Amino acid sequence: MGDLTLFGIPISLGTMIYQAVIFSVLVFILKKLVFKKIVNILDKRKQHIENQLHLTEQYKLDAARNIETSEDVLKQARIDAREIMKHSDNEAKLIISEAKEKATQILKDANEEAFHARTRSYPKADHIKGA
User: Fold this and answer.
1) Cα dihedral across residues 83, 86, 91, 94: positive or negative
2) Which residues pair with 11 in a beta bridge?
3) How many CA atoms lie within 13 A of 76 on its CB side?
4) How far apart are alpha carbons 34 and 40 in whole angstroms?
5) Quick check: 5 and 11 in contact, CB under 8 A?
6) Measured in whole angstroms, how far is the alpha carbon of residue 131 from the centre of its chain?
7) pTM here?
8) 11 with 1: CB under 8 angstroms?
């Protein structure tokens, strides 16, 4: 096997063929043993990332539904609170009016009793004399 000169660089044809065979064997071994494992690892990684993205989208939708539910519950709680406030205001007004009625009745009864007590304490004769 002879040597060639290309652009002034000496090239050995035998060494070139030997290196090409060694490179081809190395590529074949790497393809059979390593590339399949690397491709499998990359495919698994890609599938894992896609699953995580799918879960993330699902969690976003769940969160949006939960927010809507929470807002509905909050609205209902506000409505219930308003109703309770109205009911308690009405009951308070009712209790106050009943208390006022009882107070006026007690006052009226006390005035009548005081009047009767005064009229009973004076003798009728004195009462007529003073008139």
Assistant:
1) negative
2) 4
3) 6
4) 10
5) yes
6) 86
7) 0.45
8) no
Question: Can you list the residues of the chain whose pLDDT is less than 70?
Answer: 1-2, 121-131
pLDDT digits (tens, 9 = 90+) for 12-41: 888 889 999 999 999 999 988 888 889 999
**What does the block give as tokens for 54?**
């799918």
Tokens 């009548």 locate to 112
User: How would DSSP label each residue in 53-70?
Assistant: HHHHHHHHHHHHHHHHHH
Which residue, among 12, 16, 17, 20, has the nearest Cα to 2 in the 3D structure? Answer: 12
Tokens of 114: 């005081």
Spatial distance between the Cα atoms of 106 and 85, rounded to a whole number of angstroms: 31
Q: Which of 22, 2, 20 is nearest to 11 (CA)?
A: 2
